[in-house]
Structure formats: C-alpha cells, structure tokens
Fold:
Amino acid sequence: MDGGPCKKFTEMSKSSWKNFTSSCHRVQNSLNRAVADSLIGRYFKLDARKSSFTTELRAGTATFLTMAYIISVNSSILSDSGGPCSFSDSNYQSCLSQTRSDLVVATIVPAIIGSFLMGTFANLPLALAPAMGTNAYFTYNMVGVHGSGPVPYGTALAVVMCEGCVFLALSVLGLRSKLARMIPRSIRLASAAGIGLFLAFVGLQPHQGLSLIGPSPSTLVTLTACSHSDPITGACLSGTMQSPTFWLGTAGFLITTFALTKNIKGSMIYGILFVTFISWFRNTSVTMFPDTPIGDSNYDYLKRVFDFHLIKNTAGMISFKHFNRSEVWVALSTLLYVDVLDASSIMYSMAEFGGFTEETGGFEGEYRAFMVDASTTIVSSSLGATTVTAFIESTAGMREGGRTGITAVVVALYFTAALFFTPVLRSVPPWAVGPSMVVVGMMMMKMIKDIEWGDAKEGVPAFLTMILMPLTYSISNGIIAGIGVYVVLRLWDYLESLVKWMRKMKKFMEDAHNQVSAASADTVPCSSVV
Structure:
C-alpha cells in the first residue's frame, strides 16, 4: 500500500517546506551579499571580519535580550537614593515615583548613545549601559538610601561627571591601560568579586530586593522574609519566612538560574518578567499596586503602557557646591579606580573573546572605544545616572557571530524602542530585581579562581578587599583596606630591594672612585717630568 492521501499530503508538505526554506536562504544570501558590497558593508568590514548582515542582526538581538534587565535594575537601585527628592517632604513618594520614571530614561539614553557610537565610531560589537557596581556605590555609599549619605545627589552627579572627564583625558592621552596595569592583579580580581558580593548582599535586603535578610539588634543581620516588617528599617515584626513577595521572588530566581543552566538567551530577564507580571495583579498579597492613593496612581500610569517620558527631576542637577568635603574626593578616586579596572578589563577580555587583539597587547579600535565609554559617562551624569561601561553580556552576541559595529547599532535601536515603554519599565517591583542582583553577583565571583590564594601576600589583601565591601557597606573601604594591606605586606620586600639597590650603588661608587684614583696615579709621572 502507498499510504493513501495522507502520505501524499505529508510528502507535499515536506517538499513545500524545503522549497520555502531554500527560498529564504537565497533571499538571505542575496541580502547579505548586497549589504556587504555596499558602502555600509565596507565601512563595517563585514567581509574582512567574516560576518554578515543577518548574523549581526541576530547578534544584536541576543545581546539586548541578555542585558535588557539593566533598565529596571539600574533605575530601581538609583531611585533608592531618592534622587533630588527630600525625604522629609510630604510629597516624597510622588516625587520618588516621578524620579524613577526619569531614571528609566536616564538609563536608556546613555545606552543608546554609547552603543551607537561604539558601533559606528569604534566598529566593535560591544553594547554600553550604566554599570552595575558603580550604581550601587553611588546610591548606598555616596548619596545613601533616601539621601542619608554624606554626598548630596547633585554633588554626586558632579563627581560622576568629573570622573568621566578625567577618564576621557586618560583615554585621549593613552594612559588608561597603563594605569590599569599598575594595580596589583590580586586586588583587581578581588575588587570585581567584592562588588559582586556587595550587589548580592543588597539584592537580599528589604526595600531593595528579596527581603531574605534584615537587621537584628543582637547579630546585626538575620533571616527575615517576614509577613510583617518595619516599613523603615525592614526589621522583622512577625511571620519569619512567610513573606509572599519573597517566595514569588524566589520563583523568579529559580527561573533565571534554570535558564542560565540551559544557556537560554535572555535568561536574566525571564525571571524578572514572570515576577513582574504576577505582581501587577491587584488585590493580591504580592501586588505592587496596593489600594492606596500612590498605588492607584501608579496603576493608572501602568495602564497607559506606551508613553514617551521626558526627564523632569534628575536632568541638569549637577552641583559643585560641596566639593570641599573629603568624602567627595574619596568618592571620585573610588569611581575612577573602579572604572579603570572594570571598564578596561571588560573591554580587553571581550576583545580577546572576539579575536580583535593585536600583537602589541591592545585591540582593534581600542583608542576610540575608550573615548566612547568615557564621553558617554559625561552624558549619563548630566541626565541623572552613573558611569557607563561596556557590558560583558556583549559576549552573547559574539557567540551568535557578531563581529562588527552593526551588532552594537542594533542594540541601540532596541534601547530606542524601549524609550516608549516607560510605564511598563517603571513598574518592576524590588522582589523582581533582587534575584537578578544576586545572579549578577554570582557571575562576578568567578574572578577569584585566578587569585593566588597559596601566597599570603596575595591572598590576604584580596580577601580583605572582598569581605569588607559588603560588611562595611562600602566599596571604597574594601579597596582602601586591600591596597593598604598589600603595601604593608610587601614593605619588607620593598626595603630589601632598597637595601640591595643601595649596596649596588655603593659598590658602583667605590669602583668609580678606584678608577679615578688609578687614573690620577697614572698621570703623576707625566706631571713630574714637566
């Protein structure tokens, strides 16, 4: 039997599908060839880098999906500072809601500008956005939660702008990579891991994350996730491990980590999307919109979905009024240090991954790339956000074959589209963002495997750098302690080297003196004859 009409239909379907896919491949190849031969293709060096237009489109999409979480995470972290809003003001919550919308835009715009310039000016497949780590330092160490820190919001933005200007000058003069190499390797690696611990610590706390840990009068911190907590301090009042939002956030964390184990593109945002969607339903124990005037107002704004928000509170808030404070200069030094290490090392590692490195140790487009992220930091500070850097998530696009600046331009276009969804992006709850901060912290911990733990002169400073960042709630304290201990432990080596150098110089001077004496003795008979 021939199988009847069903078999014939199946064969026809297979044949039609084969013809369809073959036609698609022909169209794709024709498009790729046309773009490669065009002025655009020659500018971006598609053939030289063995890439194609459709490959770059796919790479840009993959990069955006893996880093889109920064929009909600960064705006959530920065809004914890209160921005320009005064905590003692009766309209504080209304002002804070407006500020968070501003910070969503202030996160997106630098990402658009930085990624576009990185693609068109440097021709590299690296996407830029406000950096994780420095945003936490800005909020929790400089400005403080609700503005309780030593540096006012406007002054903190001025510090970021100054750091960007110094960073740009170092990039133009070619000193940036040289400075990065001067920092001890163990401290560089420990700084990245310590910032990861700090982010994870913040992501587990109340108000900023999952609320798994909270304050304790006897042990400083303790397990919370309580059904009822102090709205100011986050201290547990009753119902330990009974918080509905904690368990919802934990589900989001498991979704994210499972997607990571399966190497699913965009894994960081799937957990955020799930938790956020559930939290939008009203009249539930996990809703982000309680039956209050603020909750009603925020829910009405979410229902608009599309809205092009204009920054009202955070743009142009830069102030140099408090630059006479020592905390300002400590903050400037810390930001510059972290930026030199973080931004430079990320670019070098991704250039190595993408095959852009040169025999000299640099990489193709290095000079222009360094200028792009430094100048974009200046733009970011003027809008109310923090330092900008290339995202390690750009490697997701490189895995898809992205090798030219078209990948970065595609990312910039996706961020541009995100500008019109401010109501949605502003309505992401802390218990959706917290798990992502924990995961990012985990990713940053991989750096410690390269620290020489068997050498106490390397291991002790590295450990202090890491552990003091979360425990003192200060990235700068960890860095200062690490470098200080490193210098002290190396002091004997420095003194020993100095003694050897002095002995060498003494011997050199003695030899020179003996040579002069011998030469003088040889000239005596001549003088006597005369």
About this structure: The chain is about 65% helix and 5% strand.
